[in-house]
Specification:
7% strand; 2 domains; Arc Repressor Mutant, subunit A; 241 residues; 9 helices; three-stranded antiparallel β-sheet; single chain; mainly alpha
């Protein structure tokens, strides 16, 4: 009984790669070619390796002619990249292209010569499936990605101008100095503690609140001079944000 263990070696592949490559209508031979390339690159903690067609043929049991045909399609789709062409004495060096946005997501059907005895894959039913359900699924995934990108654009922080700060402070009738506020955060790289600022209005309200608290403390101690929040120790300020 076989008892394979991860401790004896494994091939690490990112889930994001799997999630995207299973959307491609690859045939069985192409999957087996990919498996060999993954095994002898990622499986040995390397990004590329000299993998000849003869080697893939021997590893998979698929004829060299057929390996050559299907590997060529993977290269054309930019799923497999050639990092160094072959020479008279050395095979070319191949690598798996993990940048799935570069892949040509075209339908690749396996075609063969019946004289070799190799079985055809991608029947009429299979082709129909790829052209309807799978393409629809892929289109939905692409739409979701576009929505995520649009969401990131919409939520991206844009630093305010002095005029915007001054106008907002006037609306709130607070004592926050717009110039000091913006100079303070420019010097901090628009960071609040260890985090990037997301809402500048909320940061203004925090200054307003802290200014009021400092004013109350000063009044209670008999010192009626209100301190500006930029004079407060950073750690104490961040603790209140």
């Amino acid at each position: 009984m076989a008892r394979p263990q991860k401790e004896n070696g494994y091939t690490p592949i990112a889930n994001e790669i799997i999630d995207n490559i299973i959307q491609l209508p690859l045939n069985g031979t192409q999957w087996r070619i990919l498996a060999v390339i993954w095994r002898y690159t990622y499986g040995f903690s390397r990004k590329e390796h000299s993998v000849s067609e003869a080697f893939i043929s021997k590893a998979t049991g698929i004829s060299k002619r057929f390996v050559s045909s299907e590997l060529k399609k993977l290269i054309e789709q930019k799923i497999i990249l050639i990092t160094k062409p072959s020479t008279y004495i050395e095979p070319r060096i191949l690598k798996f292209n993990k940048d799935y946005e570069q892949w040509y997501r075209t339908i690749v059907l396996q075609v063969n010569d019946s004289s070799t005895g190799e079985q055809k894959q991608a029947s009429t039913v299979e082709q129909s499936f790829y052209s309807t359900d799978e393409q629809s699924f892929y289109q939905d995934k692409q739409k979701d990605k576009q929505k995520e990108k649009q969401k990131d654009i919409c939520t991206k922080f844009i630093p305010p101008t002095v005029e915007q700060i001054r106008k907002y402070c006037k609306e709130r009738n607070n004592s926050v100095d717009a110039e000091k506020w913006i100079d303070f955060y420019i010097s901090k790289g628009w960071m609040i503690g260890k985090n990037k600022m997301k809402d500048w209005k909320a940061a203004v309200r925090t200054w307003e609140r802290n200014n009021k608290q400092q004013g109350k403390k000063a009044a209670q101690s008999g010192n009626f001079k209100q301190r500006d929040i930029s004079d407060i120790d950073d750690d104490k300020f961040y603790a209140n944000t």
